[in-house]
């Protein structure tokens, strides 16, 4: 077998340096990891990788033999995210027990480390979301020790606060369970062909009173004769419920929320849009609105209610329908949430 072919098939980056510390062999994955255009033969490990810890470890192994293991970070740049590598090094020993160099293997841990950061952020945000209503509940429950506090209008206020925060916890737990089902692949869709106009008319009717009570106008624009889409009606209701609740939460009194449907540019999908005239989202944060618990302005947004999971649920459900969803927004200019679903083939 050809050694280069074997090395070229590996997902790990591999380099071999001689006793003088010069690179004598490297595979393609190593070149890609460090943005090198050609084989770095004749260069030192330091020149090829710019990693002081690895260069020092290679020198030590050349001197004393043995093996080493490191975890190193490579800073990002304009074209590449920061990277994390597990680096394993070992002396190359010939038949006469004489050391002839060092083999270095780079395993990319970047995706794993980014997932760990996401997990840590999720746990932190979840802890905060749970702690806030629990702290309120604990504080008001202390007042129950004094029966006199429960009389008249003050008692009604206390019960209202308790009920509101219990509902908030119930919604949060419900959304978490829903996301858990989606993540584990346990959520099954029962699809049927439905006209886009029919879907949007149902949404408009469901939310007409809520919008009217806040003095927000709800406009619907959708051609009658659009191709049908294959959807689970219950889950589509859930998608639009989250989108409409979000739009209504941030729409100022007297503004307009537009609900539209049209044929996509390629003619193979239907594009739905929910557009509000609210505060909008800074451009550098638009791509993060579908992250779990992400809030553009944590304190102010939290006061408006919601669990912080609605758009994440929307994204999961749209993807289960083989569709796409994204946001367009600028601070002070309102927000558009756009989702596309493939046209029914029947």
UniProtKB/TrEMBL annotation:
<keyword id="KW-0597">Phosphoprotein</keyword>
<dbReference type="GO" id="GO:0000155">
    <property type="term" value="F:phosphorelay sensor kinase activity"/>
</dbReference>
<dbReference type="GO" id="GO:0016036">
    <property type="term" value="P:cellular response to phosphate starvation"/>
</dbReference>
<dbReference type="InterPro" id="IPR050351">
    <property type="entry name" value="BphY/WalK/GraS-like"/>
</dbReference>
<dbReference type="GO" id="GO:0005886">
    <property type="term" value="C:plasma membrane"/>
</dbReference>
<dbReference type="InterPro" id="IPR003594">
    <property type="entry name" value="HATPase_dom"/>
</dbReference>
<keyword id="KW-0902">Two-component regulatory system</keyword>
<keyword id="KW-0472">Membrane</keyword>
<dbReference type="InterPro" id="IPR036097">
    <property type="entry name" value="HisK_dim/P_sf"/>
</dbReference>
<keyword id="KW-0808">Transferase</keyword>
<keyword id="KW-0418">Kinase</keyword>
<dbReference type="InterPro" id="IPR035965">
    <property type="entry name" value="PAS-like_dom_sf"/>
</dbReference>
<feature type="domain" description="Histidine kinase">
    <location>
        <begin position="125"/>
        <end position="345"/>
    </location>
</feature>
<dbReference type="Pfam" id="PF00512">
    <property type="entry name" value="HisKA"/>
</dbReference>
<dbReference type="InterPro" id="IPR000014">
    <property type="entry name" value="PAS"/>
</dbReference>
<dbReference type="InterPro" id="IPR005467">
    <property type="entry name" value="His_kinase_dom"/>
</dbReference>
<dbReference type="GO" id="GO:0004721">
    <property type="term" value="F:phosphoprotein phosphatase activity"/>
</dbReference>
<dbReference type="InterPro" id="IPR036890">
    <property type="entry name" value="HATPase_C_sf"/>
</dbReference>
<dbReference type="InterPro" id="IPR003661">
    <property type="entry name" value="HisK_dim/P_dom"/>
</dbReference>
<protein>
    <recommendedName>
        <fullName>histidine kinase</fullName>
        <ecNumber>2.7.13.3</ecNumber>
    </recommendedName>
</protein>
<dbReference type="Pfam" id="PF02518">
    <property type="entry name" value="HATPase_c"/>
</dbReference>
<dbReference type="InterPro" id="IPR004358">
    <property type="entry name" value="Sig_transdc_His_kin-like_C"/>
</dbReference>
